[in-house]
Specification:
Three copies of one chain form a homotrimer. Chain A has 270 residues and is an alpha+beta fold. The first copy, chain A, is 21% helix and 29% strand. In chain A, the strands form two sheets. In chain A, strands 7, 8, 9, 10, 11, 12, 13, 14 and 15 form a nine-stranded mixed β-sheet that branches. In chain A, strands 2-1-3-5-4-6 form a six-stranded mixed β-sheet. The radius of gyration of chain A is 21 Å and the shape is elongated.
Chain lengths: 270, 270, 270
């Protein structure tokens, strides 16, 4: 049998004992698991950021991997604990939209409301379901217990409404979805949407006062201190600076706009 | 046989090669170990913080887990390297109080002075016993070598004197023990002490200028921008702000006071 | 058979999904691997820092360990992807000098240009060879595939020219190579070079305005708030402050000079 893999994505950081407690709980139930951190540095309670990072990473893991994700501002309240099964993976966490993107990409098979307390820790706090519910459920799943045994099927589950890029006339309006450690500005404009929009015409990408007129294939094609555009490793349009930091140079933050224009609609840059 | 688990807690951070060197040493001696990080972000040389974080996490791991902890301002000096065996766990590190809380909770069976150099690396630096003594000792322990073979039993070992909360008349005086990534203020007042003190009477919790008059059961019961009190996942009284940061809102730091009053002693909030 | 170990050293940080994607790719090819992080906090695109950290850690791992290192400003450009085999280890990453120090210490057996695409991911981005080339190559290596099957032997590979300390008359000029989490200033002066230079004579170490006249054996021998010199755990001359931070106290940064003088050449400290 394949060695079960459980990944963890949270907003817990790594300075406290929270993540380690979850790992201890998992290993107490199934010491054979391989544990892998996706990240624990999601901004506190930023469900959307968690959803994006999870979507970027989950599909590189072997089929059958169990992904536990806990960005959970509603912990202890009315939001449900769920298990979401997609075509190839299992996801465990709060029903608050965290799985929206991953589920969309891999295709949902079923969503289970976690209610069977036999698979939880004996005492459930109101503040740390990561340790008390999600970790033990994931560990039991890794022992090949059928998802249906954890609770009843849900017909409805919470989805994030992520703003998609919008086409208005000859302009495509997007925004900065994520900024990585290198200051690369990752937009919400997927490769396919970008190429379908520009249709081999000349184009202009406008970000702040900067106009970019072509697409590079790799960072090494850019000039130093000059922002360039390219398709990043996640398949999104990205603004970068060779051996530099686009976020700092352009003074951008998450959510800031980016505009792509073709032909006659190309705006006067000032 | 159960797969041996070794956890690591240090103040080494993760930017340097220190933790990786320890892991390499362990895997060179026993490649079958599962390694789990508790945290490496204990403030440099803050033994008390290390002791608290270790106490919060150790008991979630399977019985028999070996916990290596290195917050070691006295490295290379006269402090002893020790192995501390409790009812269910093994702890390896410097004899400076780091194990005080965990040992108290799990019950000490024996403490061994690590002197048998056969279980150390051949060359021992004066600055990095984590790599040269504690990692190889833990790895050898994970091979089921009897603790008694690592050195002689100690009758005395160093204990931290952690300030306990104090009752004076109708007031209970505590302090902030730890502040987590979310800015939650975790006090040194354990649940049992709190409830024994208030005895179902009305109470006031005072932190800075803020007066809190009830206990919530979870973060979701709080109001935004309004500090609340609750019992946190570690069993301590905690001050939090729903979807916010209590540390920033109340401008608190570790060690700052908190005061609980009942009935007639409830102070005039000025 | 020994369980294969793959280590990872990058400048990717841990807040993004990059490192997790690499781990997912590796575990998809060989789920039996033990994965260990060396560090992911190399300063962005700082190949020299990566080379030093790798050199400090690699040799503590079991023989046969596969070290993947990705600090790769030239990704997608003309720099080659390589596999470098030393006497005891395998290294996988970009041909930009990252392996210079480790290779020098362990002795190079062969360097292979990674060209055999069968061992890569099917789609290769221009921006993330860590995931698309280096991770899958390392995973295939861990399945005991012969290094020669990954591509042709290279006669030339890129080496960093690290500035070595220089002797001029009675002075030895070095610099700060690395500053660790504790603010310890690790110089480029190896123990052997230091002792060969001073030859049992009285000496002065000058760092900023501070003069140090002896070598301590451990941190505990220093005085509080007074910088001391010692040989650190990596075998280099190091400036430290007992229970303090030498970087902050002396206001030093990487690359700053340090000067050692003997006898008559001892300079007037102002």
């Amino acid at each position: 049998m394949r060695k079960p893999i459980i990944t963890l994505l949270t907003d817990f950081g790594t300075k406290d004992h929270y993540v380690a407690s979850m790992k201890g709980v998992i290993l107490s139930i199934n010491p054979q698991c391989t544990l892998v951190d996706i990240t624990h540095e999601v901004h506190p309670q930023d469900v959307q950021e968690g959803a994006i990072l999870l979507a970027n990473a989950f599909s590189y893991f072997p089929k059958g991997t169990i992904h536990v994700a806990v960005v959970d501002p509603g912990v202890g309240g009315r939001r449900k604990p769920i298990l979401l099964q997609t075509k190839n993976y299992l996801f465990v966490g709060p029903d608050n939209g965290l799985f929206t993107l991953a589920a969309k990409r891999d295709g949902v098979k079923q969503v289970i409301h976690l209610t069977h307390r036999k698979y939880f820790l004996p005492d459930i706090s109101n503040t740390f379901h990561g340790r008390d519910i999600f970790a033990p459920v994931a560990a039991h799943l890794s022992l090949a217990i059928n998802p249906r045994r954890f609770g009843n099927k849900l017909d409805h589950w919470v989805k994030l409404s992520l703003k998609e890029p919008e086409v208005k006339g000859k302009n495509l309006y997007g925004k900065i979805l994520l900024i990585d450690r290198f200051g690369n500005l990752i937009t919400n404009i997927e490769k396919e949407i970008f190429f379908r929009f520009i249709k081999d015409q000349p184009f202009q990408i406008r970000v702040r006062e900067k106009i970019i007129r072509d697409l590079k294939r790799g960072y090494d094609e850019g000039k130093k201190n000059d922002p360039m555009a390219l398709i990043g490793s996640g398949g999104f349009l990205e603004i970068s600076v060779r051996e530099g930091n686009a976020q700092e140079m352009l003074k951008m933050k998450r959510g800031d706009p980016i505009k792509i224009s073709t032909k006659s609609q190309i705006p006067n840059p000032k």
